Amino acid sequence: MLRDGGLVAFPTETVYGLGANALDARAAARIFEAKARPSFDPLITHLADTADLERLVGPVPAAVAALAGRFWPGPLTLIVDRPVEIPPIVTSGLDTMAVRVPDEPSARALIRAAGVPVAAPSANRFGQLSPTRAEHVVQGLGAAVDVVLDGGATRCGIESTIVDARGPQPVVLRLGALALEDLVAAVGPVSVRPGSSGQPVAPGTLAAHYAPRTPLRVVSGVEPPPGDGRRRGFLAFREAPAGGYAAVEVLSPGGDVTEAAARLFDALHRLDAAGVTEIHAEPAPEQGVGRAINDRLRRAAATWSAPD
Ligand code: AMP
Ligand code: MG
What we know:
Layout: E1 8-11, E2 16-21, H1 25-35, E3 44-46, H2 51-57, H3 62-71, E4 76-81, E5 96-100, H4 105-114, E6 118-119, H5 134-141, E7 147-148, E8 161-164, E9 171-174, H6 180-187, E10 191-192, E11 216-218, E12 232-236, E13 247-250, H7 257-272, E14 278-281, H8 290-305
The structure holds adenosine monophosphate and magnesium ion (MG).
């Protein structure tokens, strides 16, 4: 189906991807259409094996090769020069390309069997919650997808970390499932550029993104709701509030940021379905993948505070 220009949603270790043949401009165009994704938001190309990188793009800078060698397969997306084989629509006209090897055996088997690089953004409509289960994809995209491969809940539950390591110091373009601490331990100091305005280098970094349909507000901690009788939901990091909320999700009773990240979008999908008028979300500790959780919560909240 991929070779024929079809759209195949598949699980990776981060979230479900909406895959198309990255060598086929028409197939890539179908991704933008299915997601209602603006054409300025470039796609991540997925490869089956680390060795496929230089086969596709030729020699890459030493720091890029080192990061690929250290963290692939895994939730790290790297920026490289776009090879001529990849049509510009995949990279939204940029002369660079985002690329990674997912750490999910079925995804790698799929890409290997297709025999082509697979462009795959998250399998949700633009700006909405990322899918961490096959059901989320079916609910969100329905008939726009040709097939959804069901691999159950994804392991990380949050998108890949995007790093541009072509310059003198690596730049983190999007916080994600590979913890900043692990990156720094491997390569030394990095800068973090959440770039949320102007021409987006990484639209996963648009100020407003990753949003539930229900208005979401980041609160400072577990606190009772205002007593105005409205039905509200609460997204707790570790401990449920004593009462007053119509629906509550606890991300990690043991206080583990990795477990919390794995549950984040699933919990938000459930709160979204709970018929509440507003979701209050408690931030995670600002460490490890907790940073990526907080990044997603801020952007979800921004959707609802942005002037229109
Ligand atoms: P998604 O898979 O939907 O989370 O989106 C993929 C993310 O990768 C988006 O935030 C893209 O903007 C980002 N991305 C893709 N290509 C590039 C690139 N060439 N340079 C920087 N970021 C990119
Ligand atoms: Mg996305």
